[in-house]
Structure formats: structure tokens, C-alpha cells
Design brief:
Elements (H helix, E strand, L loop, with lengths): L3 E8 L10 E4 L2 E8 L6 E8 L2 E3 L5 H17 L4 E8 L5 H6 L7 H12 L4 E9 L2 E4 L5 E7 L5 E4 L4 E2 L3 H14 L2 E2 L7 E2 L2 E8 L2 E7 L14 H25 L11 H6 L7 E10 L5 H17 L14 H4 L15 H5 L7 H30 L5 H18 L9 H7 L1
Parallel strand pairs: 1-5, 1-16, 6-15, 6-16
Antiparallel strand pairs: 2-3, 3-4, 7-8, 7-11, 7-14, 8-9, 9-10, 12-13, 14-15
């Protein structure tokens, strides 16, 4: 299990006379690229593998449904911060995936709706736009905000307005503010292309979910720049994405210095390569034959990120192996054979000192509490229903922590069984 999960999505072809340069087979994407050579042009096929690939028939719901359980479990159960960011070329469907349209809901609307069903009193959101390497607050009249580095080497946004989400009406208002206030412009692919990086920070269950929509990468020879301002705008976008690539290369090469401070974008993404954060990356691809080179560049970039998984850099430490972490990408099957009545287990013949017997009995109580906690969490996430479940879930967590503190950490959920067997 790793801290980074990488997905890829292929945009449908809307023009009848356009040929596709991509082939999708299960979790593999192949790029058919015409390579020029001294003896003439020849076809070269490059293959890339990812954790999951969505073909051109997939919709926003398919992508959301594949990762939302992982995201909520990491935030609520494993107490991890989560980052989900989308990267791809201009016009490949990044903003549509996150924000949707009038006919189809985006990832933001779907995740906030599910959080409302779980606990509507615990959702706080702030939205920041990075335009020309400066940060602006989209829900506070586009006021200029700053990223400051705290004593823990983390970057935080100062004076950013935070709003509370308590109803679906609040979700719609948030969505409209983002759409109306974000910088858009004409690109080589469409007339309303995002010209800035977008960060949506959602605080839920005392953890942060950061959703990033990166501005589309576009080569200078293909860009439509009819003014000095637009030329600078496109250059700053490419420069920030280049700095991000340099950070990735430094992590892959295990260099002692990673240039996160060179760009406002990389400051935001620094935490996503830390072992305390779970990161989901979606690469959006255009299969238009004219965009073959750019699609290959996007896939090469994502492949570099895959290499971070195995190097163990100080910014991307390997996760602690445990019974819980191994199943973080799977729906946990609760063992229904576990005794609900703790007293039945306590009456077993346990040999040893009174102190050992007390530890053993409380270990069984802790095991029962963990079973209840898992069961309630599965009900909240999979059924998307509260029905006072969240209150019961919080009470079980408090009892579990109280029991562990009572014995000064000697009743650790994972390791205590091994310690008892040794004794």
C-alpha cells in the first residue's frame, strides 16, 4: 500500500473526422505516436500502467464512486489529510470532472453531499485561486491572500475566508461563486478554458481534503495569445507546472533539496507527498490525434509520480505497515462472528498474574469497540445514512481512547495481541 493512488481518464471524441491516438485496456493506456526518422516516419507505441483507468464512456459518478470510500475512511478512521488533484492538457476535462455542469454533477458537489449526510455540522470550506503566481480568495471578492510558512514547515493561507456548509443550497451557492469568479480565457481547445490553478480546501472530521484543479498545460506554439497579458498568463501557468515537475524529479532522484518554494502552486502541494497525507491524482487525456504529443507528455509526468512510491524520500516516507493500512483501498468486511457480548470472552480461562488478566480482559473490550467502530463507519459511508450513527460512532471512539489512555498506551489496537502472546 502506498500514499499515492494514480488514476487516468480519457476524454470522448466529439468530432466525427478525428482519429484516436490512445488505446485503453483495463488499467493500461497505450499512445500511438508517429515518430520522425531519417528513413521516414514510423509508428511507435508507448504503454503506461496506472492504479485505475477510465475510458471515454465513463462519467463523473464512476470516478467519484471509485475513490470516495477511500477518502472518507482516511479522514474519519485513519485520521489522514487527503489531497485530490487533477492534471492534464487544456480542454481535457479537468474542470468538468471536479465541478460538472447543468446535466452532470462534479466531484465537489458529490463529496459535499455525502459529507452532509454523515455530519452537517462539521464542514468548512475555503477556496483559493492561483493566478499569475498570486493567491486570491474566490469567496471573498477575489481579495489577495498570502501563503505563510509556519513552524512545522507547512504552508498555510492567511486571512482566507472560511464558510460553513450546512445544506445543499450552500453547495450550489459555493459552486456558483467558483464558476463566476474564476479566471477563464480562450485557449487552443475551447473559449472558456481555466487560466488559473484552483484550490478547494474542505475541513471535515478535523482533517483537510484539498481538491486542486490545475490549469491546463499548453505548448506555446499551440496557444492563442493575442496580447502581452495573455502571453504572460500562459507563460506563468507553464512555469508553475514546470516547477512542479522539477519537484517530482527531485523526489524521484532522492535529492536533499526539493524546490517547493519556487511557486505558489508547489507550496500548496508540498504536503501531498508527506506520509501523513493520502494523495489521489487523476490525469485527464485528450485522445485527439493532433494532441498526441501533449498526451504523451502528461503520461510521462504521471509515470514520474509513480516512481516516488518506491524511493522513500523524506517528503514521501513509506507508510507504517499495519493490518488497517493494508485494506485502505478495499471495503472492509466486518467479521460478523466477533462476539458482541464481551462477557462471554472475559469468562475464558486466562492464566497469568492479575495484572496480565486485567490487560487481557480490557484487550477484548477494545477489540469489541473496534468492531463496533468499523461497523458504524461502514454504515455511514456505504449507505450514506446518518440516523444518529455519527453520534454513536463518536461515543465508541471516545470510549476506545479513554480505555487506551487508562493503561498509558499499553492497549495499542494493533500490537497488543503480539505483546500478550509473548507474555
Amino acid at each position: 500500500m502506498t500514499n499515492i493512488k494514480i488514476l487516468s481518464r480519457v476524454k470522448p471524441i466529439f468530432k466525427n473526422d478525428t482519429k484516436s491516438c490512445l488505446e485503453v485496456e483495463e488499467n493500461e493506456i497505450s499512445v500511438n505516436k508517429i515518430q520522425k526518422g531519417c528513413k521516414g516516419d514510423h509508428l511507435v507505441k508507448y504503454k503506461y500502467q496506472f492504479d485505475q483507468v477510465f475510458d471515454d464512456t465513463s462519467v463523473n459518478w464512476d470516478i467519484y464512486n471509485s475513490i470516495y470510500i477511500d477518502i472518507l475512511k482516511n479522514m474519519m478512521k485513519f485520521k489522514n489529510n487527503v489531497t485530490f488533484y487533477v492534471y492534464g492538457e487544456t480542454g481535457s476535462g479537468k474542470t468538468h470532472t471536479l465541478l460538472g455542469n447543468s446535466n452532470e454533477k462534479g466531484f465537489l458537489n458529490l463529496i459535499l453531499s455525502d459529507m452532509l449526510e454523515i455530519n452537517k455540522n462539521s464542514i468548512h470550506v475555503n477556496v483559493t485561486e492561483v493566478y499569475n503566481n498570486k493567491c486570491y480568495d474566490l469567496i471573498n471578492d477575489n481579495k489577495h491572500v498570502y501563503q505563510r510558512e509556519n513552524g512545522k514547515n507547512n504552508f498555510i493561507l492567511s486571512s482566507s475566508k472560511i464558510i460553513k456548509i450546512e445544506s445543499k443550497k450552500d453547495i450550489i451557492e459555493l459552486h456558483n461563486k467558483i464558476i463566476n469568479n474564476r479566471k477563464v480565457g480562450i485557449s487552443s481547445e475551447n473559449n472558456a478554458s481555466s487560466r488559473s490553478h484552483l484550490l478547494i480546501n474542505i475541513k471535515f472530521a478535523n482533517k483537510n481534503l484539498k481538491i486542486l484543479d490545475l490549469a491546463g498545460c499548453e505548448k506555446a506554439k499551440k496557444s492563442i495569445c493575442d496580447s502581452r497579458e495573455k502571453f504572460k498568463e500562459n507563460g506563468v501557468i507553464n512555469q508553475s507546472l514546470f516547477v512542479l515537475k522539477e519537484c517530482i524529479r527531485s523526489l524521484v532522484s532522492n535529492k536533499p533539496y526539493v524546490p517547493f518554494r519556487r511557486s505558489e502552486l508547489t507550496k500548496m502541494l508540498k504536503h501531498s507527498f508527506d506520509n501523513s497525507c493520502k494523495t489521489f491524482i487523476l490525469a485527464t487525456l485528450s485522445q485527439d490525434e493532433s494532441n498526441c504529443g501533449t498526451s504523451a507528455d502528461v503520461l510521462n509526468y504521471i509515470s514520474d509520480i509513480k516512481n516516488i512510491k518506491s524511493i522513500g524520500h523524506k517528503y514521501c516516507l513509506p507508510p507504517i505497515k499495519s493490518k488497517h493500512n493494508e485494506n485502505v483501498y478495499e471495503n472492509e468486511n466486518v467479521n460478523e462472528n466477533v462476539h458482541e457480548n464481551v462477557n462471554e470472552n472475559v469468562n475464558e480461562n486466562v492464566q497469568g498474574s492479575p495484572r496480565f488478566q486485567l490487560l487481557y480482559e480490557n484487550k477484548l473490550i477494545l477489540k469489541n469497540l473496534q468492531h463496533k467502530e468499523n461497523k458504524l463507519l461502514n454504515e455511514m459511508i456505504q449507505k450514506r445514512s446518518t440516523e444518529n450513527i455519527f453520534d454513536d460512532y463518536s461515543k465508541v471512539q471516545q470510549k476506545k481512547l479513554k480505555l487506551i489512555r487508562k493503561f498509558n498506551g499499553k492497549l495499542k489496537p494493533i500490537e497488543q495481541k503480539k505483546q500478550l502472546n509473548k507474555n
